Each structure stands twice: as structure tokens, then as C-alpha cells.
From TrEMBL:
TM spans (from-to): none
Residue ranges of domain ABC transporter in the record: 17-248
Keyword list, A-Z: ATP-binding, Nucleotide-binding, Transport
Keyword Zinc-finger found: no
Any one GO MF annotation of this record: ATP binding
Organism encoding this protein: Pseudonocardia oceani
Signal peptide positions on this chain: none
Source taxon at top rank: Bacteria
InterPro entries documented for this protein: AAA+_ATPase, ABC_transporter-like_ATP-bd, ABC_transporter-like_CS, ABC_transporter_ATP-bind
Name by which UniProt lists this protein: ABC transporter ATP-binding protein
Pfam families, alphabetized: ABC_tran (PF00005)
């Protein structure tokens, strides 16, 4: 039996996430640092968008604003859910809780009853192929398994607003710390889970091949201050050719920044 989340919800009238003219400045005066400048980005319901750029270009800052953890200096940030889920490089699981209890946590915080949240956690652990590991604690799981638990927990957070058709998951290089084989497996698993749930995803990475493999659309940010300098629709066309094109553009952005410095 393969678990899937119910996707029979009305499509929301607005995008899953939208940034309009967003700029972010840290500090003030001569020490001020502009991280983002004039960013426009729209993510449709159920869309998988990969946000690509060199280190320090503002990708994580942008994700933090979508998550509601920070506010723009200028511009507007809108999301179609009260609870966007966030997944980081580290699983950040509570070590004293089992896999099931970790997945249940966002549901418990949202006031979901014990029976309902236990059922949802079981379904999600099955979805990420960890149904046999439900009673284990994080130290008893491999790194890849811990990230699967973190993925199931993030999906649990999105189910709270599922009746409004507004699932949104924000992923900040969640596979960067894993070995190549585990990363490859989890990239495939993420694609399968995304197709099963219809969750809108904004996935931050600096790896062009990862972005092209996972995304429906790749958005490239310039070096600091980050602004959108390129977008590619991956739903049609040769992905190998697109990989080369995006890589060349990223190299150009990085080298231009180096000359400017």
C-alpha cells in the first residue's frame, strides 16, 4: 500500500508565494549590507521552483522572509498559508522523540487531536518509506533516514492548511550534507513525494544539476545584492542542454561579481 495525501482541494485564487520588489538591507549607515535588491518571484500552487545562486547571494535570506522569520526592508512578501514548512541542511529532530513523535510535533502544536495526528504521522512515514522505523529515535537512524523523517515532519506542517489548498514547503539545501549516493536517492524520493502531495516547493541550492533534476523552474540570483537575473522553464526542452546553459550563466554571474570587486 502506498500512502498519498488527499489532493482533492480547490485551487487557491492566489499564488502559493509571491515577492514583489523585495529588498533586504542588514544594518545601517556605512556598515549596511544589501542582501537582496528588487526581487520579483511568483510561485504557483503545486509548483517546484529551484532557487539557484552562488554562496552569499541572498537565497537563504529570501527563504527566511517567505517563512515569516524575517521581513523585507522594501517590497512585499505574500504566502497563501499560515504555516509554510521549512526544511534545513540538518534534520533538527528532537533526539528524545521517536520518528513518529517528531513527525507529529507540528500537528500537536497546531492543536490536532492525538488520534488524528498519529494517523497522519503514520501515513507520512509510509510516504517517505520509513513505516518500519516509526518507533526509533534519531540516533538509531542513518543520516538519510533522519532527513526522511524531517521531510515527513515538514509535510505534516503543510497538512494543517491543506483544506485551503495552500501547501508550501521551503527547503534550504536539505541534501548538501549527505554523501553523493544518499543525496541521489533522496532527490528521487523528494520528486516522488512532491508528485504525490501537490505541495508547492521553493528549493534553495547552489548545485545546477540538482536544480535541473528537481525543479519545474529554475530561478537564478545574481551575486550580492541578489536579484533575479535568469529563469528557465524545465517542463519542456532537453535538460542536459539546459544544465549547460544555466551553468554558463551562473559562471558569468560569478565572474562578473569578481571583476566588480
Amino acid at each position: 500500500m502506498t500512502a498519498t495525501l488527499d489532493r482533492t482541494v480547490q485551487a487557491p485564487a492566489r499564488p502559493a508565494a509571491q515577492l514583489t520588489g523585495v529588498s533586504k538591507v542588514f544594518g545601517s549607515g556605512v556598515g549596511a549590507v544589501t542582501a537582496l535588491n528588487g526581487v520579483d518571484l511568483r510561485v504557483e500552487p503545486g509548483e517546484f521552483v529551484c532557487l539557484l545562486g552562488a554562496s552569499g547571494c541572498g537565497k537563504t535570506t529570501l527563504l527566511s522572509m517567505l517563512a515569516g522569520l524575517d521581513e523585507p526592508t522594501r517590497g512585499t512578501v505574500e504566502v497563501a498559508t499560515d504555516r509554510p514548512a521549512v526544511m534545513f541542511q540538518e534534520p533538527a529532530l528532537l533526539p528524545w522523540l521517536t520518528a513518529t513523535r517528531n513527525v507529529e510535533l507540528p500537528l500537536r502544536l497546531a492543536g490536532v487531536g492525538r488520534s488524528a495526528r498519529r494517523g497522519t504521522a503514520g501515513e507520512l512515514l509510509e510516504l517517505v518509506r520509513l513505516e518500519g522505523q516509526a518507533g526509533k529515535r534519531p540516533h538509531e537512524l542513518s543520516g538519510g533516514m533522519r532527513q526522511r523523517v524531517a521531510l515527513a515532519r515538514a509535510l505534516a506542517a503543510t497538512t494543517v492548511d491543506a483544506e485551503r489548498g495552500s501547501r508550501l514547503m521551503l527547503m534550504d539545501e536539505p541534501f548538501a550534507a549527505l554523501d553523493a549516493i544518499t543525496r541521489d536517492v533522496l532527490q528521487g524520493e523528494l520528486t516522488r513525494v512532491w508528485q504525490a502531495t501537490g505541495t508547492a516547493v521553493v528549493f534553495v541550492t547552489h548545485d545546477v544539476r540538482e536544480a535541473v533534476r528537481l525543479g519545474q523552474r529554475v530561478v537564478l540570483l545574481s551575486s550580492r545584492p541578489g536579484t533575479v537575473v535568469g529563469e528557465w522553464d524545465l517542463t519542456s526542452g532537453d535538460r542536459e542542454v539546459l544544465t549547460e546553459e544555466i551553468t554558463d550563466r551562473l559562471r558569468e554571474v560569478i565572474s562578473t561579481h569578481g571583476r566588480a570587486a
